[in-house]
Amino acid sequence: MSLGSALAVEHLTKSFGGLTAVSGVDLAIEPGERRALIGPNGAGKTTLFNLISGTLPPSSGRLILFGEDVTALAPHARAARGLARTFQITTLFKNLTVLDNVLLAVQALDPVKRVFYRRRVAYARLLDRARLLLEEWRLAAQAGVPVRELSYGEQRQLEIIMAVAGQPRLLLLDEPTAGLSPAETTAVAGIIKTLPRSLAMLVIEHDMDVAFELADRITVLYQGRVLTEGDGAAIRQNPQVNEIYLGSAAAR
Questions:
Q1: Helix and strand tally (H, E) in the chain?
Q2: What is the C-alpha separation between 123 and 102, in angstroms, rounded?
Q3: What does the alpha-carbon distance between residue 45 and residue 223 come to, in Å, rounded to a whole number?
């Protein structure tokens, strides 16, 4: 593993009773790298994300985040060190407005979050940051709209905005285009591509066209283990990958 890695996963294993969902995974993500994680259903992709983010404790192995061993740290402590993630199913506050959702995300890692007796208008700096994010991501017109009234694609877009609101250094995206129409997929993929290169990303993506478009390198997970990794061309031409996941058409 590179000493300068944004993330180093070392021999990571997670067992649930007699089922081993992740088995001895090694993975290194460099600063600014875009990495896609692909594999068939049940390969262990989301379990691996849960281990990296701290939602699940590993059975064995280590997680190194920006040079620090975070294996025993809770999710909020990992977030404070620069890790953010989205989920396969959106986790927004659907009865709150778009602006209030972003404001909560902006406030989450700010010292002002510990003060609960001040009115929202007192947080001018945080409000300005939230409004600027909505303008940058072209959702300013929906700032006062309850999230439940957004399209599913707009909710996915909002979730990414909230994930980057705290200015993380490593972003985990879990199926960002799942359930989207072709037009929405194009829009969300475009948003992801515009994220700054100072931000490293690990993306679980079921849409192979999107995965190959977004990623510098691709890691293939199969039955809880890393089968192979490489750039898009190498993955497309790998016969094992074609056999278990992509199908022969992917190599054409």
A1: 9, 10
A2: 13
A3: 10
Nearest to 43 by CA among 213, 238, 227: 227
Residue 118's SS3 state is coil
Contact 27, 52 (CB under 8 A): no
Q: Hey, CA dihedral for 192, 198, 199, 200, is it positive or negative?
A: positive
Q: What does residue 114 show for φ and ψ, rounded to 5 degrees?
A: -85, -5
Provide the angle, in degrees to the nearest 10, between the axes of the packed helices 98-108 and 152-165. Answer: 20
Residue 56 has what DSSP assignment?
S
DSSP code string of 8-40: EEEEEEEEETTEEEEEEEEEEE-TT-EEEEE--
Q: 3-state DSSP: the chain helix, strand, coil percent, rounded to 5?
A: 40, 25, 35
Q: Which of 148, 204, 215, 202 is nearest to 171 (CA)?
A: 202
* Percent residues over pLDDT 70 in the chain: 89
Q: What is the pLDDT of residues 210-231, one digit of tens each?
A: 999 999 999 999 999 999 999 9
